[in-house]
């Protein structure tokens, strides 16, 4: 009879080491079921974690974390790891306010030696830890686990190339599931597939190793040298060994017997160079709805465990991503020079619909944002109209290319920046906090931010029309505010904002996604006799200086608000006022922007409330400027009438 509830007895990895191999197999089923149950209630990244359940158990069974350092690339597959490393009782708080983070986080646990959420950092960090270990004469093990999708990023190759020179000993486990977020693309994916099929080499090597184990060391070494020679004849060598790794595999990543056996041999081996263990897994393993899903349940909302169907209230309001996708398709139907590029995020950016309509004009370059930007620059140089659809947080990875290859050359690449502002449960690593700042300091750029979904339509069309310089338009995650989108898109006048409501005494100048909250704050304040002028800047660069002058000349107070860090829109406005405005400014100017900290994961509503950038927070700023108590109606009337 199967032993039940083994997982209940696991309170730390020390408990795990007491189990037999047979019990580990039972634990794998329980751990997989627990992961499914948790994510069905919290949402999150499911498929990746299901694919590494056996690997997670085996790694912790053989190695001695936290003394041994286990680094999960990206970290979205780390839920089983978190359950086994003392966070089981809190795993139900996953991705919730004050709860367990959805990726690895150093401050959360000593079992997370390196924080992650962006891909392809694990080999570099492991190499750095290996150097630190060697310099300090320590002898612990270092294990990095990276997926085949993450190998499409140049940083992984840079790290492997450096590994061959430094030769610090550590283990890299390549989790090959033929699946990243979108279907993996590129030569590396093809290479891994061919390597997997190369039975002639793997079988030969297996035989040689078995023979060598039974021979004296001197003869075994000669045999291994012969194997190195035969490898070149049979399989042409492997990329990994040419880069300085000792390659082992590929092996079945769901076979606990093999995993435990091989990991134990690797741990006990005296190989004096980095080892790469190549395992084959199945993303979404053990949960049919995930296995059969196009994206293997990479990222999911709350769902019904039995059917796999999402549990969420239906809304007729389109998401900003959907509006961008549909508008770009509309424009591409009438302009055959429009092409779209993404970096392994075809579904997330909405470009899967574009790809279906224009397969020859769509390019998914894999997790390679740097390459994506420079490729777009090359397209623009030859007369195409490339749209680089990249999340704000991921565009950070290609900043040098934006500066050097696009801005300096004044090439008309169009950046569609999704997930601008705070993004909720994915937390600080995925927040779009800095793009206004890091783009607005660049010469030659046009920078727009959509306050609502109709404005986004206009900005897509406007970007199509800008052919003499680069442009960017940013928009938040989630649904719009419910506007009628039947209106035809129009080209906006570059650097021209709009006045939505006229008021007295105080003006709010919004840029981007806080517009709905500004409207709500204005309505609440008007009921108290405080009538506010509300303007939407539309452009961070170039600024609508005429509108700013008008707001300053006709109001005692001006507030700017943006979903971004210091150095962005508010800073640009202040710079204009203090350094370039001709008339003396007597108005008081206040700027609202993200605080000087990384905002922890929670719902977007909770995040914005915590930093006082919701409607109530905007109202509070108005009261402070007017020197009013919230309920001081007499004083309110006196000040407003002045």
Question: Can you tell me about this structure?
Answer:
There is one protein chain. The chain folds into four domains: 7-198 and 243-291, 3-Layer(aba) Sandwich (Rossmann fold); 199-234; 320-474, 3-Layer(aba) Sandwich (Rossmann fold), CATH 3.40.50; 498-640, Rossmann fold (3-Layer(aba) Sandwich), CATH 3.40.50. 47% of the residues are buried. It has a seven-stranded mixed sheet with strand order 7-6-8-9-11-10-15, sandwiched between helices. By secondary structure, the chain is an alpha/beta fold. The longest helix has 22 residues, at 21-42. The chain has 26 helices and 17 strands.
- How many structural domains are formed by the residues? 4
What strand order characterises the main sheet? Answer: 7-6-8-9-11-10-15
**How is the CATH topology of the largest domain named?**
Rossmann fold
What are the segments in which pLDDT stays under 50 over at least 5 consecutive residues?
228-237
What composes the largest sheet? 7 strands, mixed
Structural class: alpha/beta
- State the CATH superfamily name of the largest domain: Thiamin diphosphate (ThDP)-binding fold, Pyr/PP domains
Percentage of residues assigned to helices = 40-55%
Measured by DSSP, the beta-strand proportion falls in 5-15%
Number of strands: 17
What's the overall geometry?
A: globular
Please tell me the overall pLDDT.
88
């Amino acid at each position: 009879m199967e032993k039940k509830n083994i997982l209940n007895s696991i309170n730390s990895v020390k408990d795990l080491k007491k189990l037999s191999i047979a019990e580990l197999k039972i634990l794998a089923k329980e751990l997989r079921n627990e992961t499914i149950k948790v994510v069905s209630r919290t949402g999150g990244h499911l498929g990746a974690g299901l694919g590494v359940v056996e690997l997670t158990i085996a790694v912790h069974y053989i190695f001695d974390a936290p003394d041994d350092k286990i680094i999960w690339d990206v970290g979205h597959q780390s839920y089983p790891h978190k359950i086994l490393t003392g966070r089981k009782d809190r795993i139900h708080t996953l991705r919730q306010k004050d709860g367990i983070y959805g990726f690895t986080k150093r401050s959360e646990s000593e079992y997370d030696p390196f924080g992650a959420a962006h891909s392809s950092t694990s080999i570099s960090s492991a190499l750095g830890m290996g150097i630190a270990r060697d310099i300090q004469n320590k002898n612990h093990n270092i294990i990095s686990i990276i997926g085949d999708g993450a190998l499409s990023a140049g940083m992984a190759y840079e790290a492997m190339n450096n590994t061959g020179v430094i030769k610090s000993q550590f283990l890299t486990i390549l989790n090959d599931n033929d699946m990243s977020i979108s279907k993996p693309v590129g030569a590396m994916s093809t290479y891994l597939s061919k390597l997997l099929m190369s039975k002639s080499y793997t079988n030969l090597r297996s035989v040689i190793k078995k023979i060598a184990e039974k021979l004296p060391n001197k003869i075994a070494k000669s045999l291994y040298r012969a194997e190195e020679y035969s490898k070149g004849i049979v399989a042409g060598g492997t990329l990994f060994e040419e880069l300085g790794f000792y390659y082992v595999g590929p092996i079945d990543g769901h076979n606990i017997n093999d995993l435990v056996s091989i990991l134990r041999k690797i741990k006990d081996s005296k190989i004096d160079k980095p080892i790469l263990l190549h395992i084959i897994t199945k993303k979404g393993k053990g949960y049919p709805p995930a296995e059969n899903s196009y994206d293997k349940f990479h990222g999911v909302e709350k769902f019904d465990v039995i059917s796999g169907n999402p549990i969420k209230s239906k809304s007729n309001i389109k998401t900003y991503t959907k509006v961008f996708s549909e508008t770009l398709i509309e424009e591409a139907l009438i302009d055959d020079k429009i092409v779209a590029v993404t970096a392994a995020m075809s579904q997330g950016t909405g470009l899967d619909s574009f790809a279906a309509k224009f397969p020859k004009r769509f390019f998914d370059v894999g997790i390679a944002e740097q390459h994506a930007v420079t490729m777009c620059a090359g397209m623009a140089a030859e007369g195409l109209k490339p749209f680089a659809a990249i999340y704000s947080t991921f565009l950070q990875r290609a900043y040098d290319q934006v500066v050097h290859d696009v801005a300096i050359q004044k090439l008309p690449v169009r950046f569609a920046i999704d997930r601008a502002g705070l993004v909720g449960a994915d937390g600080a690593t995925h927040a779009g906090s800095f793009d206004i700042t890091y783009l607005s300091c660049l010469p030659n750029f046009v920078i727009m931010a959509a306050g609502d979904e109709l404005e986004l339509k206009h900005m897509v069309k406007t970007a199509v029309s800008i052919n003499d310089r680069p442009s960017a338009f940013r928009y938040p995650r989630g649904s719009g505010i419910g506007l009628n989108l039947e209106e035809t898109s129009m080209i906006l006048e570059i650097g021209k904002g709009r006045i939505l409501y006229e008021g007295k005494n105080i003006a709010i100048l919004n840029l981007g996604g806080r517009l709905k909250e500004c409207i709500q704050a204005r309505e609440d304040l008007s009921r108290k006799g405080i009538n506010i002028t509300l303007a939407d800047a539309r452009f961070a660069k170039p600024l609508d200086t005429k509108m700013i002058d008008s707001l300053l000349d006709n109001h005692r107070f001006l507030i700017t608000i943006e979903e971004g860090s210091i150095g962005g829109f508010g800073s640009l406005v202040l710079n204009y006022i203090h350094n370039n405005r001709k008339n003396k400014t007597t108005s008081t100017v206040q700027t609202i922007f993200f605080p000087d900290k990384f905002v922890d994961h929670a719902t977007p509503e909770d995040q914005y409330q915590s930093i006082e950038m919701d409607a109530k927070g905007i109202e509070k700023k108005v009261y402070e400027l007017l020197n009013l108590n919230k309920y001081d109606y007499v004083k309110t009337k006196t000040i407003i009438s002045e």
